[in-house]
Design goal:
15 helices, alpha/beta, globular, 42% helix, six-stranded parallel beta sheet, five-stranded mixed beta sheet
Length: 423
């Protein structure tokens, strides 16, 4: 991490910047802190600004190494900082920031959300290498160029483990479809994108907008394939048929739990019956399904997690991922688990959905959590139908490295599972 921060700083020094902005997620908080501290020590006259979801959750955590922290949606706030630089006295007039003044912490009024997302420029896709980003995709395309896009911000739901409310509030703001398709045109024309991942929290929350999106996409970009996130209760057979005809090849749905009581405790606002119905419609539509399940939801015990494993086999998605609950700072579940003393580490570098658990409860020890996640993966993927489906996808995509990685994953989980059962 130190070496990475040093390399980044050496690159920054070539520009002798007036301002350095660092976007911070919880997972990267440790690296960002080191980079900010090194920047302050090396570039004495440079203003160091931190922002992002982790900073919004814990705005005062890094004010000892940064000059100012941006809280919440940051585009306009950061632009105002740039406009007012180097007059630091004027920073107090800018909503949505925190900083130190005469040894005391100053936090300004909350910044209002940007009302018109169309005013934001498109991401500078030319500034990163397209070959470093891939997607596991079961069909051969004309090329392998993969890009992401966001057509809305926010979610009107209130899941206890989600940070969306912290940044966007419980409000959904949509970009106009004219604006969205201008960006898609650039991604397809300039960057030869053949697979697009729509990263909205819930792309299908407004069905009328999805129908219009599909009609426009079929007209102008018929060859482009796409993936999106959706909720189980925001789908219909008619909508799925329209999405399929417009090139949708995969929908990712957060199932979370197979126990209705647990779904209620984490404010998911959906039932297992609705989930089962949604996946029946998805299979009938021919769109691939990627279901994610959370191991260790609030209130979970061994019996409720076994129900989750059982539901994964009942709905039988194309792909399934079993993740440990990740209590990110700023979420309701983080606050409750922290108050109860269940959080086992505040080393932010361990806060990844694909890592090991960062909590234990009276019902679930770390050993139990690790064991039951292995059980979930093995019971789902070692079924003959699931094995054949995965092998068929690999053959179609000719991603032979995925076959080796899959074999090694099963070997790792399977061996560990057997060892634990013997113990």
């Amino acid at each position: 991490m130190d070496a990475d921060a040093d390399r980044t700083l050496e690159y920054a020094k070539m520009f002798n910047p007036d301002i350095i902005g660092i976007s911070v997620t919880t997972l990267t908080a440790g690296y960002a802190r080191k980079l900010a501290a090194k920047s302050k020590n090396t570039l004495k006259n440079t203003l160091v600004v931190l922002g992002g979801p982790h900073i919004t959750a814990l705005p005062y955590e890094n004010l000892d190494v940064a000059d100012i922290c941006v809280i919440g949606e940051g585009e306009q706030t950061f632009a105002e900082l740039v406009d007012n630089f180097p007059d630091e006295l004027s920073f107090e007039k800018i909503p949505g920031v925190a900083f130190k003044k005469n040894g005391k912490t100053v936090k300004t009024n909350e910044k209002k959300l940007i009302p018109n997302l169309d005013k934001l420029p498109f991401p500078a896709m030319d500034m990163y290498s397209q070959y470093r980003y891939i997607h596991i995709y079961p069909y051969r395309l004309k090329n392998t160029h993969y890009r992401t896009i966001i057509t809305s911000r926010g979610c009107s739901y209130n899941c206890s483990f989600c940070m969306s409310e912290l940044i966007w509030k419980r409000e959904v703001r949509f970009r106009s479809l004219d604006n969205v398709f201008q960006e898609i045109g650039e991604l397809v024309g300039k960057y030869k994108t053949s697979l697009l991942f729509i990263h909205d929290d819930n792309f299908t929350v407004n069905a009328a907008r999805v129908y219009e999106f599909c009609r426009t996409k079929r007209k102008y970009f018929p060859e482009l394939k796409w993936i999106c996130h959706a909720r189980a209760d925001c789908l219909s057979s008619e909508l799925l048929a329209e999405m399929k005809s417009a090139g949708c090849v995969e929908i990712q749905i957060g199932v979370e739990s197979g126990d209705d009581t647990i779904l209620s405790k984490c404010n998911k606002a959906v039932t297992t019956s609705t989930i089962i119905t949604a996946f029946k419609m998805l299979r009938k539509s021919g769109i691939n399904q990627w279901a994610t399940f959370i191991i260790g939801n609030e209130g979970d015990d061994k019996e409720s997690i076994l129900k989750t494993i059982n539901l994964s086999k009942i709905i039988n998605p194309t792909y399934a991922t079993f993740l440990f609950l990740l209590p990110l700072p700023g979420t309701k579940c983080f606050n409750r688990l922290s108050e109860k003393g269940f959080i086992t580490t505040y080393d932010w570098s361990k806060y990844t959905w694909h890592g090991e658990p960062v909590f234990e409860t009276e019902s679930l020890s770390r050993k139990m959590l690790l064991w039951i996640r292995k059980k979930a993966f093995l019971e789902f993927y070692l079924r003959p139908s699931a094995l054949i489906r995965c092998l068929f996808d690999i053959v179609k995509s000719r991603q032979w490295n995925m076959l080796f990685r899959g074999f090694m994953t099963i070997f790792k989980f399977g061996f560990g599972f057997i060892q634990n059962k013997r113990a």
